[in-house]
């Protein structure tokens, strides 16, 4: 395929020859499948000289960077932040001040639960140009990878992306606003507090039988999908032990899930039929 020299290529070429000042590029790496990168993200990664990445960026994607690129891991795990967010913000600015095009690679989309907003503001306040390249967020990537439409004319008129982790631990969304059965709920970072969130949703009017999909490592080769119901969510998590990263999709659209879409599934054919028939 022949691609004309884009304004991006021109900018990067200018940067390599010192004609452009340093900048920060907040780049979404998508949910893991390398083929879900945008063309723009791919171009930036392949030409990167300095790349600062989060934990959920897949190894396959990092492998696309030039062998001599400086790749800095600033990933956090729950309970362990090797580098604080304020230090990451400062690192990006310091690197850009040396005149580098700094590729800040983040899982999914930089502006969906990714602290992209904080990093952008920090760079802008320091007078560093900041460009944003969107990525496929976990919700849309995982939904596509297991055939669950997030909206559907007959089942869901809207969709909500919600963090399963509040600033002080337990999630504290406006539960009342989540009761509409025709709204699909997608919880990011929702495993630790899944029991509290299912109890709250039921207490605020969601049907205890609402189907739930837990998608572990969505879009990756070892993706695993677990299907359960709201009232059974905590028990399912305790039994199946889904690991990070996992996403929760809650709503009637989950009945459209077909095991054939995913690499592996713990859903038995009879359970699948029961959900589809209901
Ligand atoms: O206030 C909010 O709405 C949520 C704030 C938020 C947290 N982490 C707090 C959190 C956000 C969203 C945001 O700031 O916009 C994040 C973002 C986040 N979490 C990222 C994006 C990059 C980053 O900021 O580091 C990532 C992915 C990454 O590559 O590091 C995460 C990962 C994460 N954080 C997971 C995911 C996982 O699958 O392991 C989990 C646990 C999920 C679960 O199922 O329980 C967390 C938990 C989490 N998020 C904690 C906190 C508070 C804090 O960071 O201070 C708990 C951390 C802890 O217990 O130490
Ligand atoms: N910026 C990211 C989200 C970071 S918060 C995005 O737009 O996707 C981290 C949470 O994202 C995880 O706890 C999990 O809920 C979700 N997540 C990210 N990648 C995932 C994947 N491949 N499969 C399932 N969940 C994923």
From TrEMBL:
UniProt pathway: Porphyrin-containing compound metabolism; siroheme biosynthesis; precorrin-2 from uroporphyrinogen III: step 1/1; Cofactor biosynthesis; adenosylcobalamin biosynthesis; precorrin-2 from uroporphyrinogen III: step 1/1
Keyword Ligase: no
GO molecular function: lyase activity; oxidoreductase activity; uroporphyrin-III C-methyltransferase activity
Name of the coding gene: cobA
PANTHER family in the record: S-ADENOSYL-L-METHIONINE-DEPENDENT UROPORPHYRINOGEN III METHYLTRANSFERASE, CHLOROPLASTIC, SIROHEME SYNTHASE-RELATED
Pfam families according to UniProt: TP_methylase (PF00590)
Lineage: Bacteria, Pseudomonadati, Pseudomonadota, Gammaproteobacteria, Enterobacterales
Keywords of this entry: Cobalamin biosynthesis, Lyase, Methyltransferase, Multifunctional enzyme, Oxidoreductase, Phosphoprotein, Porphyrin biosynthesis, S-adenosyl-L-methionine, Transferase
Listed GO biological process terms: cobalamin biosynthetic process; methylation; siroheme biosynthetic process
Domain Tetrapyrrole methylase, residue spans: 24-234
Source species of the chain: Winslowiella arboricola
Family: Belongs to the precorrin methyltransferase family.
Protein name (Swiss-Prot/TrEMBL): uroporphyrinogen-III C-methyltransferase
Keyword Chloroplast: no
NCBIfam families: cobA_cysG_Cterm, PRK06136.1
Enzyme Commission numbers on file: 2.1.1.107
SUPFAM superfamilies: Tetrapyrrole methylase (SSF53790)
Gene3D superfamilies: Cobalt-precorrin-4 Transmethylase, Domain 1 (3.40.1010.10), Methyltransferase, Cobalt-precorrin-4 Transmethylase, Domain 2 (3.30.950.10)
